Structures are given as C-alpha cells and as structure tokens.
Amino acid sequence: MMKKQISVLFMAAAMAGLLTACGSSSGDAGKGATTAAAAVETTAGASSEKKEETQAPTTQDGAAGAPLIMVTNAEFPPYEYHDGGEIVGIDVEVSQAIAEKLGRTLEIEDIAFDSIIPELQSGKADFGAAGMTVDEDRLKNVDFSDTYTTASQVIIVKDDSDIAGPDDLKGKYIGVQLGTTGDIYASDYEEEGSTIERYNKGFEAVQAMMQGKIDAVVIDNEPAKVFVSQNQGIKILDEALTVEEYAIAVKKGNTELLEQINKALAELKESGELQAIIDKYISAE
Predict the structure, then answer these.
(1) What is the pLDDT of residue 66?
(2) What is the DSSP string of 5-39?
C-alpha cells in the first residue's frame, strides 16, 4: 500500500512540474499538486475503509442479537420429540422462554445424545437441553445450570416378566439409550453378569424387548410412560431405579451464559411459567 502511494505522489509531482513548464503560474502549479495529493488521500482513505469492512469481526457468541443455539436429541418424549416437522417438548419450550428473556432467537439442532457434550466443548453450540442428569462424570466436561425438574430412571418389562425390581436385573439383558443416565446406571449391572444392549433411540430398546431380544429397558420415567401407553403388553415397575435432577449444560467456563440462564430460570420458576410448561406435557397423577 505504501509503495503504491509513493508512486502516485511521484506522478502527481511530475504533472505539477509539467504544468509549470507549460507556462502555468506558480499558483496554478500549487493548485495542481494540491489536487493530486487530495486524490491520493481519497484513494488511500477509500482503500482503508474497504479493508476495515473486510476485517469487521463477526458476531461472537453471546453478543446481542446472535442466535442461541441449543443442541438436543429429539427422541425423549415429553422433553423433546418430533411432532410433524417440528421439535417440541418441555426442554424446547423452557429453552424458548430463556431465549426470549435473553433477547435472542433460538435455533435447535437435533443430534445424537452422546454428541451433545462434544458439540458444547467445541463451541458449535451454546447449550444442551435434553433431559440431562447432573452427575460427576459430566461435570468434568461441562457446567450445569440450576435444576429445572427432577426425574427418575425406571424399568420397563413385559407384563409376564419375572423381573419385579432392580435386584432382579442381575444376569439379564438390559436395553438402554446410548449415552443416557439409564446407560450409566445399567452399566453397574455388568459386574453382576448382566448384558447391556445400547440403542440410539429409546423406542428401539422397547421394540427389542417386545421382540424378546432383551429382558428389560432402563429409561427415564416420562418417556417410559409414553412408550407403555403406546404399546400393549408392557409395564413400568413400581420401584424406580434412581431419582435424579435435570439441568441445562453449557461449555465449561462459560460463566456469563450460565449466569444468564440461571437468572432466566429463576424468573420462570417465580412466575410459575416453568411449572406451567411442565404441566402441559406431564399430567399430575
């Protein structure tokens, strides 16, 4: 850029000298040089402005107006599932309410459950809401918001099964959804001689059980109720395997977004909007 400006200045000076040699007055020569210099300055300024436009930073995560990207696994009713061409559910409506309080639009990405934490770690998404239980292993990789609901892991069996409670899972074939809390807790039974069959979707595990490929399914209570209501000949055991808390996951160290989410959740709890969303999908028993 500097080399180009020197060249233009040299030409301007030469033109000014030529005008003087052709009989122009010294005032005219000065005027010509001034005009040429002004042209150089204008050209340099325009070039500088163009460079600034090209290098203008893109909107960063968390900036006002930037979309809030949520990752989920829409195979977990009533928390997130497909309804026609839409992804709906408790987590979707809670996340939408949070986004509105933050003055941002919400974008939802449906991915495999065990890909949610890597997506947050890489910065490709802002937060994960997918019926995620807070546990020590996950806390090593992501940070969690305040709890927004509690849930339990239950056992689904056929009506004529000899499995009556958690202790009877020893030595059995147990189906789970890959990467979920049910997967984690059921894995403990491997030491008791059980075999864990992992599926990408919860209903795939239920189908496998109904086909006699496995003996039981360990999954969250709410989707379990949906699966049982849609299929005859299966039931949920009275004794739950675990009771747990669900929260929203963010990239580890993203304290600014975490504080914003917690503030929004507190407001939703205080106003009763959070409970209204949950009640919309889960009827009181």
Answers:
(1) 86
(2) HHHHHHHHHHHHHHHHHTT--HHHHHHHHHHHHHH
**Which residues lie below 8 Å from residue 241, measured CB to CB, with a gap of 6+?**
152, 153, 154, 155, 166, 182, 185, 218
Tokens of 256: 């600014």
Q: Is the dihedral of CA 73, 74, 79, 85 positive or negative?
A: positive
Pairing of strands 80-83, 142-144: unpaired
Helices 90-101 & 255-271, crossing angle to 10 degrees?
A: 110
Q: How do 127-128 and 249-251 pair as beta strands?
A: antiparallel
Neighbouring CB atoms inside 10 A of 149's CB total 18
Amino acid at the residue 247: A
10 Å CB burial of residue 27 (0-12, 13-18, 19+) is exposed
pTM: 0.66
Rounded to 5 degrees, φ, ψ at 198 are -105, 135
Residue range 201-224, pLDDT digits in tens: 999 999 999 999 999 999 999 899
Cβ-Cβ contacts under 8 Å for 29 (sequence gap 6 or more): 16, 17, 19, 20
Beta bridge partners of 243: 152
| Percent helix, percent strand, percent coil in the chain, to nearest 5 | 50, 20, 30
CA distances from 3 to 6, 7, 47 (A): 5, 6, 14
